[in-house]
Here is the input.
Amino acid sequence: MKQTTIYLSLVASLFFAACSGNSSSEQENKPIVSQKQMEASEQASAGSQVAHPGKAVYDKYCLVCHQADGSGVPGMYPPLTPNEWIADKDKMIHVALNGQSGEIEVNGETYNNLMPPHDYLSDQELADVISYVRSNFGNDLEAVTKEEVAAARK
Amino acid sequence: MACRTEAPRLNLLQADADNGGLSLPEGFSALVVADSLGNARHIEVNEQGDIYISLARLKNDGGIVCLRDTTNDGRADEIAYFGNHHGTGIALHNDYLYFGSDTLIVRYPMIYGQLLPNEREEVVVKGFPHNTQHAAKPITFDEDGHLYVTIGAPSNACMEQSRTKGSLGMDPCPLLERHGGIWRFQAEAVNQDQVKDGERYATGIRHAVAIDWNKKERTLYAVQHGRDQLNQFFPDLYSPQESSELPSEEFLLVEPGSDFGWPYCYYDHLQTKKVLGPEYGGDGEIVGRCSAKDDPIMGFPGHLAPNDVLFYTGDMFPEKYRNGAFIAFHGSWNRAPEPQQGYFVAFVPFEGKIPSGDWEVFADGFSGQDEVKSPRDANYRPCGLAQGPDGSLYVTDDVQGRVWRIMYQ
Here is the structure.
């Protein structure tokens, strides 16, 4: 079976284009625009006085699953808003480095998904992103140093 | 009540003034059948109007919630929890209530006139792999004595290192042997085993929570949850914007032996073609081996999460809806940093076996938000669909456990 009749919804395309702010030309010139966008966003965060160094790491590696506001995805990915995992510095470093699998409970909700290891990030990047989470999303906890990450990596 | 001399007509039910929070096309209205039922997934309504809903987690020691309206106002006033398993699949077939937990298909005999089934549970199919992702086992039946079960792949794109940046895909993907397809069993046999008794009816389907047997066309349909995170794992090939729009959620016409290409291929509705995935050497345009795979009959924007499909056979709704498909989109989580999308019930008109026009949003407003940035923002997320005996359309929500009945009057 090979069916080639595909119906694209004009209404839907317009709806999504309007919502996402995409123009069709952006979609056509993907590699160039994507590179430019990436540089622009890096510059924006580098040039900003207030941006936490961990935010760029978070946006790149964590945001898709844990969401921009750290609220996670119900039933799939746990929130990074105040909970016992975030409160435990060693646990957080361990999960960021080695990933997580098996059933866990966070704020009374059960999760049983897989988080891949992020040991390919540098000690500094991991310290930054963990510190960023621990000082955002309603958390107000002590930062993590790259030495602490290095010690946990061994 | 005492003064009433004739039975109320179902089509004169009083809808809720706010349609239960939904926005609907002109002439349609809705009422809330029940609230706070638990994580309500799929739904069945029998000829008497009794309602059976699967729950993702046990509530009140039951994984099935049974609803009855004894006062003919459309609202459930008898609510009972039943069964020991939780899951997604549920279907009434030949006087049995079938239930698809994540690892087992069971059934219970229905007792005429009674809301609750008999507790005598029979195992219909066992031996499914235990997955921690895409574990739901949605079910449907044909008229020739077959049960169809979706077995999702516990994987994004069969990467060597699960969900890890830049990891290549396993080739061939060993998961396809037991997962990533739709298996067919005997509807009436008990104690069947996936490997010994199951027939792999179609393959290359990552995870299709939405499946329905179209009785008029005698054909199986499914809607696939497409793969995630193109940009996150292959940032040199995909921008975040492309990654939020791609790949399509594929509407599949499933025939015996169909192969829709997961994990090697995905469908791109902007290019209207199936292309090679980046884990298998694709760059977003290369087709390669995907030219031999089956295309969908429609490609929806990415990540909307189609969780149920229903072919409408009633006569309550206007002509354009008859024999068309309603699809419940649970709503996305991985369109971030773009706003999330979905969280609505869509309609696709059909002519025979294939769509006859564009899809459109039918019921919206589930999230209760102008814009959903994160899934947790959504008040309700549509998950299951059923048609009532009068032609009403029922929709479940698995956040709070609300059930709506949508009518045309």
